[in-house]
Amino acid sequence: MHGDDELDVHDKYYALTDQVLKIAFKVHTFLGPGLLESAYQECLMAELKQAGFEVESEVSMPLVYNGRRLDKAYIIDLLVDKKLIIELKSVEKLLPVHRNQVKTYLKFSNMPVGLLLNYNTVHLRDGLQRIKNKYYVEISETNNHTD
Question: Which residues are CB-neighbours of 32 under 8 A, at least 6 positions away?
């Protein structure tokens, strides 16, 4: 249990993460563990696009620090449908710092949900975490038409 940032089955973004995870499992089943993160990223991006998702790779996100805008303060591995951040790893073991990285990306980008995926596992289910942004503020599109 990871606390109040854990995504549960009743969350409105659970279905999106579930759809993406099915594709992530497909990539892992085909490639297996042991490759570089970049190989998994390229394959996952191709599969997600083929499934009809809008996917951006290596998305630079700005950060305002001490009154200055830093355009490449952090880089998101994959951004799906402008809602889901995917942070890919190919490491021996996920550490708390990896989860904190995703939580920070979520907070600064105001995205609702993230997936942390470690492809260097025998079973991908042992290397995945769904994370919700407890600071997320939904911004509704306003209709500026005047009648």
Answer: none
